[in-house]
Amino acid sequence: MKKLFTILLCTLAMGIIMPQQTFAQDKKEKKEKKKKDTKPYVWEMPELTGDEGFDNYLKTCDTIYHRIRTYSDSIVFYKVKKGIVTDKKTGEQKEVMGVFDDEGNYRSSGKALQQYAELTLQGTNLLADIALISVSSAAATASLPGLGMKALSYGKYIKAGPKIAQMGTQEVGEIVNMIKEQSKAIRALRKGYNEEGQLKDASIDPSNIDGVDLTKVETVNIEDPDKLAEQMAAATEENKAVGEVEEF
Fold it and tell me: Which sign, positive or negative, has the C-alpha torsion 208, 210, 213, 215?
């Protein structure tokens, strides 16, 4: 009898626990699915209403949205990479540390820092302007009753401002942070390596140059050594012209 009671008690407990576990699992799966299905917000400018306050809000949303898209689409990332150069005749390989773009082209470290400085300033200013949408949203909400019957179709645009602001803050913020990270690596490269992509001094520890570990960078296979030599020569001249780039 006691054994039967114990079995019944265990069965009851399992009946309570299992649905909770199933519910938790379903909730987790739905959350993950929702996260995967999330698409970037796409803004489409509607016709102006004729109400100055509300129309200013629509124009602000349109301007900020397209500035975000232009900024994001114009980014070209430069990364410190280890180039593996293979001699065509002997087959011997040599390592060259330098700044490369996404297509494997050797680039000027000075020019890269210069461009990053400009993009950081643009991104910081854009983030400040994105914050203005919140103010415009409040003004648009106050103007909504003045639209009369149009308020029914234009009310949905009140939510557009916060969506653009959220998207822009995240997108632009991530780009600015990535730029700062890559800039730190480029400065470490300039400090520890010469224009030939070799350590300036054998005493330099490439795993810790101002806190940056350059031993774990990506590698890129150089298929055309002659082209690399030309790009490195051009980069050297550009670096001379640029000089030192201030911290940003």
Answer: negative
